[in-house]
């Protein structure tokens, strides 16, 4: 599955074919990504990414998540997905990361908007959440630009690099979606 964001950006359903390209982006961005993401240190070799991608494929088949690689001008530059899908309660949570060199171009905001459309229109979701570390100003700006409502702070909700981070919880409801 491919979701076209615009003429340059597209989201490709995560698969094993993305293994090497994703590893290269992760490896090049270790310091950048590990500030707020706990899994980076576990991706030491392409084989670790391959195992992760196999798990992503399994979660997709089980309808627990749908995740994509982000391509800008046919080059892998990050990942985005709807995670923690709960189809009974019609909810999910957006997660994303991006190559440092690709930041500042609106890629994540545009990709989130496309993913929200997919979640509301194709999956029938009613609620999409987004969590970002209180210290992660860049990630926190995305839900604000998209019109998410800040619902609160989850205190010491995520352990990253031996430190518990507070997370801001944002949510967007289908009733507020204009498409």
TrEMBL record:
Domain of life, per lineage: Bacteria
GO cellular component assignments: cytoplasm
InterPro entries: Acyl_CoA_acyltransferase, GNAT_dom, Ribosomal_N-acetyltransferase
Domain N-acetyltransferase positions: 23-166
Annotated keywords: Transferase
Gene3D superfamilies: 3.40.630.30
PROSITE patterns associated with the record: GNAT
GO molecular function: protein N-terminal-serine acetyltransferase activity; protein-N-terminal-alanine acetyltransferase activity
Protein name (Swiss-Prot/TrEMBL): Ribosomal-protein-serine acetyltransferase
Lineage, highest ranks first: Bacteria, Pseudomonadati, Bacteroidota, Sphingobacteriia, Sphingobacteriales
């Amino acid at each position: 599955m491919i979701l076209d964001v615009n003429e340059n950006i597209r989201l490709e359903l995560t698969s094993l074919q993305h293994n090497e390209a994703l590893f290269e982006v992760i490896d090049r961005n270790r310091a950048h990504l590990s500030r707020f993401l706990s899994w980076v240190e576990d991706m030491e070799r392409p084989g670790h990414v391959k195992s992760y991608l196999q798990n992503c494929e399994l979660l997709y088949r089980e309808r627990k998540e749908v995740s994509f690689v982000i391509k800008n001008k046919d080059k892998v530059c990050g990942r985005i997905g709807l995670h923690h899908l709960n189809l009974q309660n019609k909810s999910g949570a957006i997660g994303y990361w991006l190559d440092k060199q690709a930041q500042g171009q609106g890629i994540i905001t545009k990709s989130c908007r496309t993913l929200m459309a997919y979640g509301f229109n194709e999956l029938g979701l009613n609620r999409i959440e987004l969590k970002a570390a209180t210290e992660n100003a860049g990630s926190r700006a995305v839900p604000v630009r998209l019109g998410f409502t800040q619902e609160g702070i989850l205190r010491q909700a995520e352990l990253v690099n031996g430190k518990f981070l507070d997370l801001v919880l944002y949510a967007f409801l289908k009733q507020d979606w204009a498409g």
